Q: What sequence folds into this?
């Protein structure tokens, strides 16, 4: 059986392997935070403090959160980590959400450099049934934001109207790389992503 590690123990393990750190601050409900005597901001501070206490170089840490309050707090109060803060953008769950260049530029001007929406927010099929970047992807790129996406080989990677055969995952990866110009892809099963990256020399 696997051994569950604390966050501090995982930092040590990843450090021994010479890898970068991509921690997600999981949402904690208000009742639990009050019971611990913490604000959302103090809870967010705890994550980064464990890296400082472990003497980890901030440039190797990519802290991520769905919570804009957390993202904005990291950007303003932790300048040593701010260049790598990742906003996990789940706004596409709202059917009324419309991306805009103005919105992306506001995020960039606040100091954000990485934004991470799910795959279907970055790719769509054109009239020839080829995969192309969405307006969301174009606006992000034009605003200077770097894109990371999630989650390959899960239902969150399904693109409306596009085949879901296993081999088509490589077409999705290729379009993410060439059309959406992503910097990274999260995957529950990294074999496909790793094979594509190795074949393409990425």
A:
């Amino acid at each position: 059986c696997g051994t569950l590690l604390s966050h501090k123990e995982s930092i040590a393990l990843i450090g021994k392997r010479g890898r970068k750190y991509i921690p997600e601050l999981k949402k904690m409900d208000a009742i639990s935070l009050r019971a611990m005597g913490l604000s959302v901001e103090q809870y967010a501070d705890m994550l980064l403090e464990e890296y400082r206490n472990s003497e980890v170089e901030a440039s190797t840490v990519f802290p991520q959160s769905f919570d804009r309050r957390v993202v904005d707090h990291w950007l303003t109060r932790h300048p040593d980590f701010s260049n790598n803060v990742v906003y996990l953008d789940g706004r596409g769950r709202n059917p009324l959400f419309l991306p805009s260049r103005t919105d992306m530029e506001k995020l960039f001007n606040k100091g954000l450099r990485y934004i991470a929406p799910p795959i279907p927010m970055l790719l769509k099929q054109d009239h020839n049934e080829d995969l192309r970047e969405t307006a969301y992807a174009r606006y992000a790129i034009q605003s200077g934001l770097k894109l990371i996406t999630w989650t390959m080989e899960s239902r969150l990677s399904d693109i409306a109207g596009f085949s879901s055969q296993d081999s088509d995952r490589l077409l999705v990866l290729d379009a993410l790389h060439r059309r959406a110009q992503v910097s990274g892809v999260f995957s529950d099963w990294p074999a496909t992503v790793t094979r594509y990256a190795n074949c393409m020399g990425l």
